[in-house]
Amino acid sequence: MTYRKNIIPANKFRNNDKAISVGNPFWDMSEHHGLAGIVADLDNDLLHIRHGHQFVNFSCCSYLNLDSHHKVIEGALDAVRRYGVLDHCIARSRVQIPALKELEESLGELFGADVLSGVSASSISGGLLPLIASGHLGNGNRPLMIFDKHAHVSLAAAKPACADETEVVTCNYHDLNFIEDSCKKYERVCYVVDGSDSLGGYAPVRELAELQDKYGLLVFYDDSHSISAYGERGIGYVRSHSPALNENTIMVVTLNKAFGTSGAAILLNNYPQSVLRLVERFGGGLNYSQNLNTAAVGASLASAEIHRTAELPILQKKLYNNIALFDSLIPTTQSGQTYPIRLVPVSDERVIDAGRQILEAGFYVSPVFFPIVAKGTAGLRVMMRAGQTEEQIRHLCRIFFDVRAVQ
Ligand SMILES: Cc1ncc(COP(=O)(O)O)c(C=O)c1O
Asked: 3-class DSSP state for residue 159?
């Protein structure tokens, strides 16, 4: 009798058994109560479910409503007509149509960086982080890669690939002492963190800049939630506040949130052309997968133009006014911040039912509860946007009280 081998996984940096057993009951329960798996048509910023029910989506990250801006839509259509192709399938390092270059130059001018674009922040982080881990963006030393415990899943997903190149550790949320201790012990350290994270809060960019200055710490920021929504010409939180915008700051941003289009960008400063080429050639999906398609490029060029006009600060102001109105009606621990996400605490037992009642009353807010978040910290996540009307915000807040989601 021959025995075939059973594999025992290492599960050092990912564990699908655990992720699915912990996470899937959350999704099943959400779907069972009509709060996930929803199919709805978008019409004039209202979502319609087939049997006639309509609702306003308060769970969308297009914070400035640029995704439906007429110039963005026209930009997409024009670009496809101008270049006559949606995606001419060939690796960008071999042949690329001028549209991509045009966009990267435009974003580079807007954000004050050298820019490489990709189809999503998830794919470019997945390609770029292992290159950093192997010491190819820096002085050749392999850095200790410190991932913040709350780094977005698209960053955390790169841990196994980084661990094949160097040492990888996870630190507590914004644990500056741990980072500094590591800088004392290791020749080179890279800290991976969200510039603005999905449950509210900004990275300690000034304190990190001090460590960058003192020890040459490399910081990899994902500033996807604040690009466009924050700062002059929408340069985001990190670029508005960090004094260290040099080769020790590497940044990734999605173009799919407040920027209002599709795709993502890597922002680099002070790196020679040879390193940019390396990233383009060896940054995983950047070279071996598809490019940003022409419609997305055209839409992004149009959005970048809007960022250069007086319309951008007007939209940002509308967003901030809407956030302030919400805060005045329902205080949360995020109240007073410019960050556009609010988590309204609701008990684990009540949160699904409250979400369902709010949906029936015409608004979608996303419930988060155990096991996705710790017991006792469940709540309804509300995304504020520039295009929401005062009436919609007041109405939603009244419903929060009506369904006793808040007292
Ligand atoms: C911090 C952060 N980074 C990246 C992403 C994903 O961006 P993309 O859709 O471009 O992969 C998200 C999505 O929610 C996010 O919250």
From this structure: helix
300 in contact with ligand 1, CB cutoff 6 A: no
Q: Which domains does the chain have, with CATH numbers?
A: 16-52+310-405 (3.90.1150.10), 70-307 (3.40.640.10)
Local structure of residue 202 (DSSP, 8 states) = B
Pairwise CA distance, residues 118 & 279, whole Å: 11
The atom number, within ligand 1, closest to the CA of 264 reads 10
- The predicted-structure confidence for 187-218, as pLDDT tens digits, reads as follows 999 999 999 987 668 999 999 999 999 999 99
Task: Give the position, in ligand 1's atom list, of the atom nearest the Cα of 123.
Answer: 11
Q: CA 18 → CA 113, 170, 373, 376, distances in Å?
A: 40, 18, 15, 21
The C-alpha torsion from 149 through 139 and 142 to 255, rounded to 10°, is 40
120 lines ligand 1 (CB under 6 A): yes
Smallest CA-to-CA distance from 264 within 227, 233, 316, 306 is with 227
* Residue 345, beta-bridge partner list: 379
222 Cβ below 6 A of ligand 1: yes
Encode pLDDT of 237-269 as tens digits. 999 999 889 999 999 999 999 999 999 999 999
Q: CA-CA distance, 45 to 387, in Å (whole number)?
A: 9
Pocket test for ligand 1, best of 129, 254, 257, 339 (most atoms within 8 A of CB): 254
